[in-house]
């Protein structure tokens, strides 16, 4: 059942012609009629059905304008690196004892970072961390000796880009309360990250088929890409 609030929003916006990101933001914000600070979300449809194999994207992007939300970060590292993690404001820091807590199902965090030597111990917890998408990965910068940098980036506004089996990517680029310029900068950062990923893929045709933007409780609009890739 659609609420009275939702029924007052524009109808069939997905059928409108695609428009530039700069022109759509005002409409997105106007449709944020709830009492909370709604997220501004992107939805990509990528060309993942290839003849030889499916495209599986997984990378991270640092949003210059931040995400507008705090991320609880856990760090598994050697004792001599715990101070680096704490100074970078990691929420949970530990060595073998933290690995044991994770093994017992203590997953009270949203991102897990570890050093390469501790990854050997965490790799045994694939059944615990894998389904939650929490397993550290060198490609995502979560297996590193530079703990301070990894924690700082995770806290500052780093988001993961990952497509599902149907070729959909969904992520937030900020909040309604953000200045338009911040949302545009974050959007461009995502586009640049996807463009960079395409250069590492063997793909026939364009990578991105469609892009939609919406708010948490709003309606979606099509975004016109400045260039195809």
Walk me through what this model shows.
This protein has 229 residues and is α/β, with parallel strands linked by helices. The chain contains eight helices and nine strands. The strands form three sheets. Strands 7-1-8-9 form a four-stranded antiparallel β-sheet. β3, α3 and β4 form a beta-alpha-beta unit. α2 packs across α8. The longest helix has 19 residues. The relative contact order is 0.27.
Observed structural traits:
alpha/beta; 229 residues; three-stranded parallel sheet; 2 domains; Ribulose 1,5 Bisphosphate Carboxylase/Oxygenase; globular; 30% helix; 8 helices; Rossmann fold; four-stranded antiparallel sheet
- In the CATH hierarchy, the architecture of the largest domain is 2-Layer Sandwich
- Strand residue content: 15-25%
Quaternary structure type: single chain
Mean pLDDT, to the nearest integer, reads: 94
**Coarse structural class:** alpha/beta
Q: What value does the Rg take, in angstroms?
A: 20 Å
User: What are the secondary-structure elements, in order, as H or E?
Assistant: HHEEEHEHEHHHEEHEE
Helix content: 25-40%
Quick one: CATH superfamily of the largest domain? Ribosomal protein L1/L10, rRNA-binding domain
Count of individual helical segments: 8
Number of E strands: 9
